[in-house]
Design a protein that fits this description.
With 720 residues, the protein is mostly helical. It has 29 helices and eight strands. A hairpin with a 2-residue loop joins strand 2 and strand 3. Helix 8 runs antiparallel to helix 9. The longest helix has 30 residues.
Length: 720
C-alpha cells in the first residue's frame, strides 16, 4: 500500500517535515481539506508520529524532495557533531571504524613502557575509547536503536551497541592495559581530577576480575556477554511490542470521546500498551472488565519471553558476583554507590516501611470503601482517581485543559534557564532521525560560552523507546561539549490540529527528565559523568526529584498552567485542591516503591530465583506482603520492568533514597523562594557541576551546610 501511495506523494507532505509536531499536523489537516484526492496525505496524517521518512536514495520512484528525509546540513560549531546514518550499511561502516580505532588505541597504550606511562600516553587515550561517551561515532552507530522509524536501522544500531559492549568488556579485561594503568598509578605523580580518573580506571579493572585465573577471566567475559545479550533481547521486546486490544465504545465508558475517536478503526477502539493508551484506561474507564483485560495483557501476555529473560539475566549476574568473590550481585552493585551495601539499603527501608504501612492500610481501606468491596490490582488507579475527583475535587480531565503541551514545554525551559543562569536557543535546521525532533543550543549567560546541546523527542511512535528517559549522548571532552537527548511518550497534537493536553503527572515527568539533561550539561571538566566519573546510581535521581517540587508550588503551577482555550492559569480553588491532594494515598504509593525496591534486591540477592516460576512465586509473595495489593494469578510486572535489565539492576531503591535527599535540598534552599536565582546558581555549582568527581556526600553536605536528614522528606509526605 505504501509503495502505491508514495508514487503520488504531494507537496503538502513538506509541512510534515518541519520541526514541531503541532505545526506539521495542523498544516496537513488544512491540506486535506483542499486536496481530498491525495490518499497519502490522509495516511500520513493518521501516522504522523510513526511515518517512516526515507532518504532520497531509498525513496520510491516519483517521491518529491519535500516528501523524504532531508539531507544533513553542513556541520558547524552551532550544531552537535552528528550525521545520523540512514541505512544499516552506514551503521556497519561506523561500527567497523570504531572497532579499528579501539584496537589501535589499545595496542598503542599497551606498548607504552613503565617509564613513559603518563596522563598523555595512558589516561587520555583510554578516556577516548568507545565506552566513555566521548566518541561521536559510537553515538551515531548505536543510538538510533531507540528511536529510528526504520526497523532495519534499529536492528543494525542494536547490533552495533552489542559490539561496542563487547569492546568495553574486552578493554576492561585487557591485562596489558591494566599493567599500564598500574604503572601510572604507582608513580604517584598524577594529581587533581586526573588522579580520580586513574584510580577509577584501576578499580574498574580490578572489579572486572583481572586478579582471576585466565580460565576464570574467560568465563567472566562469557557471562558478561551473555548478560548484555539477554538485556538487549528484553529491551527489544519492550520497544517493539505490537499488542493491540480491540474494544467496543461502550467498553471504554468514562474515557473521553475525543480519546476514543482518535483510536477508533473500522468500528473498534484500538488500545495499545503504550502509556498514552494505558493510563487513561486504568484511571478513567469505569468498566472493570476492560481495566482487568488491559492489565492482564500487560502483566501476563505481552512482551514475549521477557520473564524468562529476567530469570536468565538474574542467574547470569549471580554467577558474575560469585566469580568476583561477592556475596551477591546486589553487593557488587552497591559497593560503588552512596549506600555501600544492600544491608545499608535494608536498614534505610525497613524503618520507612514501618512508618508508612499503617497509612498504606488506611489508604487501602478508603479505596475499598469507595468501591464497596474487595479491591483488585487493576482497580487501584481508577479508584485513586475517583477519590481525587469526588472527595478532593481534583478532576484529572479538567486539570488537563490547563496543561497544553507546548506551553508546559516552553515554560519548563524558561524556569530552568532562569534558575541555572542558562540560555536555550532553538535550532531550526539540523540533521535528525524524525521531523518531530527539536534541538537546542545551551549558552552560559554569565560567560556566553557554549554549554552543550539537547534534543527533545517527545511523542510515541512504532519502534521507539516506550518510557521516558534521558540519553547522555556525549560528555565534555576538549572542545566537545555535552549532548543529551530526551526520549519520552507524551501525547501528540491530534490530526485535526487540537493541542496535546498533559496530565499533571506528565508535567512532573517532563520537569523531572529535563533535570537529568541539566545534570549532564552542567557537569564541569573533561570526562566528567563518564564511566570513570559516574554519579552514584542512588544519587543520580536526587537532582531531578528535587526539581519536581516546582510542579507542586503555587508559583510553579501558576506559571506552568494556561488553559488551552481561554489562556487562564489554574483557578486558585483547583490549585489548592491539587496541593491538598498531593499526599493522597502516599502510604500506599510509598509501600509500592518499597515493594519494587525489595523485589529488585531479592532477585539480585544471595539466593535469587533463577526460573520464571521462581520469579512468579516471589512476586506472588512480596506484592501483597509489602504493597498490600493481592497479585492477580499469573500477573508479573517484571515482564516490563526495564530498570532491572539495565544499569538500575539492584539499584531501584535509589529512587526512594534520592527522594529523601531531594526533599532535604528543596526544604533547606528553595522552599522559601523556589525562583531564587542565587540559590539556583549555587545548586548548579555545588551539586550539578561536580558530576561524578569526588564524594557526593561531601558535595551535598557543603550545599546543605550540614549532613543530610530524613526529616524534611517525612514532613513533606505527611508521615511525620
Amino acid at each position: 500500500l505504501r509503495v502505491a501511495l508514495c508514487s503520488n506523494w504531494c507537496t503538502a507532505i513538506a509541512d510534515c517535515c518541519r520541526k514541531g509536531p503541532s505545526r506539521s499536523l495542523s498544516a496537513m489537516s488544512k491540506r486535506q481539506k483542499t486536496d481530498e484526492a491525495c490518499p497519502c496525505c490522509e495516511l500520513r496524517a493518521r501516522q504522523a508520529s510513526s511515518w517512516q521518512f526515507l532518504p532520497p536514495n531509498m525513496a520510491p520512484k516519483g517521491a518529491c524532495q519535500q516528501c523524504v528525509l532531508p539531507p544533513p546540513p553542513p556541520l558547524s560549531d552551532y550544531l552537535p557533531p552528528f550525521v545520523w546514518p540512514r541505512t544499516a550499511a552506514e551503521i556497519e561502516g561506523l561500527a567497523q571504524g570504531v572497532e579499528i580505532d579501539f584496537t589501535s588505541t589499545m595496542d598503542r597504550v599497551a606498548a607504552v613502557s613503565d617509564a613513559d606511562a603518563s596522563v598523555e600516553t595512558v589516561l587520555r587515550p583510554l578516556m577516548g575509547a568507545p565506552h566513555y561517551k566521548t566518541n561521536k561515532a559510537v553515538v551515531e552507530a548505536k543510538f538510533l536503536q531507540h528511536c529510528s522509524t526504520d526497523s532495519a536501522v534499529r536492528e543494525a544500531a542494536d547490533k552495533a551497541g552489542a559490539r561496542f559492549a563487547a569492546l568495553k568488556a574486552k578493554g576492561r579485561t585487557d591485562p596489558r592495559i591494566y599493567g599500564r594503568v598500574c604503572a601510572l598509578a604507582a608513580k604517584n605523580t598524577v594529581s587533581g581530577r586526573d588522579a580520580h580518573f586513574v584510580q577509577a580506571l584501576k578499580a574498574g579493572f580490578e572489579r572486572s576480575g583481572l586478579n582471576l585465573s585466565p580460565a576464570d577471566q574467560k568465563k567472566l567475559q562469557e557471562l558478561r556477554d551473555a548478560d548484555a545479550k539477554v538485556c538487549g533481547l528484553f529491551k527489544k521486546n519492550l520497544a517493539e511490542d505490537k499488542t493491540e486490544l480491540l474494544f467496543d465504545k461502550n467498553e471504554l465508558e468514562g474515557c473521553s470521546d475525543a480519546w476514543i475517536a482518535e483510536r477508533t478503526r473500522d468500528g473498534k477502539v484500538v488500545v495499545t500498551l503504550k502509556y498514552p493508551d494505558l493510563i487513561p484506561v486504568l484511571q478513567q474507564c469505569s468498566v472493570a472488565a476492560t481495566r482487568r483485560r488491559v492489565s492482564r495483557a500487560r502483566e501476563c501476555e505481552a512482551y514475549g519471553a521477557n520473564l524468562d529473560y529476567v530469570a536468565e539475566g538474574v542467574a547470569i549476574r549471580k554467577q558474575i558476583a560469585d566469580l568476583l568473590g561477592y556475596k551477591s550481585w546486589a553487593h557488587l552493585s552497591t559497593e560503588t554507590r552512596m549506600s555501600g551495601s544492600p544491608e545499608a539499603v535494608t536498614a534505610f527501608m525497613d524503618p520507612l516501611l514501618a512508618k508508612v504501612k499503617e497509612g498504606a492500610a488506611r489508604d487501602l481501606e478508603r479505596l475499598k470503601s469507595l468501591k464497596g468491596g474487595a479491591l483488585e490490582a487493576s482497580d487501584v488507579s481508577f479508584y485513586s482517581a475517583k477519590l481525587l475527583k469526588e472527595q478532593y475535587g481534583v478532576d484529572h480531565e479538567a486539570v488537563r485543559a490547563y496543561f497544553p503541551l507546548d506551553h508546559v514545554v516552553a515554560t519548563t525551559l524558561e524556569i530552568y534557564q532562569e534558575l541555572l543562569g542558562l540560555e536555550f536557543i532553538e535550532i531550526e535546521k539540523f540533521d535528525t532521525w524524525h521531523p518531530a525532533v527539536r534541538l537546542f543550543r545551551v549558552i552560559d549567560v554569565a560567560t556566553k560560552q557554549k554549554q552543550g546541546f539537547f534534543y527533545l523527542d517527545l511523542h510515541p511512535r512504532d519502534g521507539k523507546y516506550g518510557h521516558a528517559a534521558i540519553f547522555h549522548l556525549l560528555k565534555r571532552w576538549g572542545d566537545q561539549v555535552p549532548v543529551d537527548c530526551m526520549l519520552c511518550n507524551l501525547p501528540a497534537p491530534s490530526a485535526d490540529g487540537k493541542p496535546a493536553l498533559l496530565r499533571h503527572s506528565n508535567c512532573v515527568t517532563f520537569f523531572h527528565e529535563f533535570g537529568h539533561i541539566m545534570h549532564g550539561l552542567c557537569a564541569s571538566g573533561d570526562g566528567n559523568s563518564t564511566t570513570l566519573a559516574k554519579c552514584p546510581r542512588d544519587f543520580v535521581e536526587a537532582p531531578s526529584q528535587m526539581l519536581e517540587n516546582w510542579c507542586w508550588t503555587v508559583e510553579g503551577l501558576k506559571r506552568l498552567s494556561k488553559h488551552h482555550e481561554t489562556g487562564a492559569t489554574l483557578p486558585r480553588d483547583l490549585l489548592d485542591k491539587m496541593l491538598d491532594a498531593k499526599n493522597v494515598n502516599v502510604g500506599l504509593n510509598m509501600a509500592r516503591q518499597i515493594y519494587l525496591s525489595t523485589l529488585d534486591l531479592e532477585i539480585h540477592g544471595t539466593d535469587p530465583p533463577t526460573t520464571a516460576e521462581g520469579l512468579q512465586a516471589l512476586v506472588d509473595r512480596l506484592r501483597p506482603e509489602i504493597s498490600l495489593i493481592e497479585n492477580p494469578p499469573g500477573a508479573n510486572m517484571l515482564r516490563s520492568f526495564g530498570h532491572l535489565m539495565n544499569q538500575y539492576s539492584a539499584a531501584y531503591y535509589g529512587y526512594l533514597w534520592a527522594e529523601v535527599l531531594s526533599a532535604d535540598m528543596f526544604s533547606q534552599c528553595f522552599e522559601k523562594d523556589p525562583f531564587d536565582a542565587k540559590a539556583g546558581r549555587r545548586y548548579r555549582d555545588l551539586v550539578l557541576a561536580p558530576g561524578g568527581v569526588g564524594k557526593i556526600l561531601d558535595h551535598l553536605t557543603t550545599f546543605l551546610g550540614r549532613p543530610p536528614s530524613q526529616e524534611a522528606f517525612l514532613k513533606s509526605r505527611g508521615i511525620a
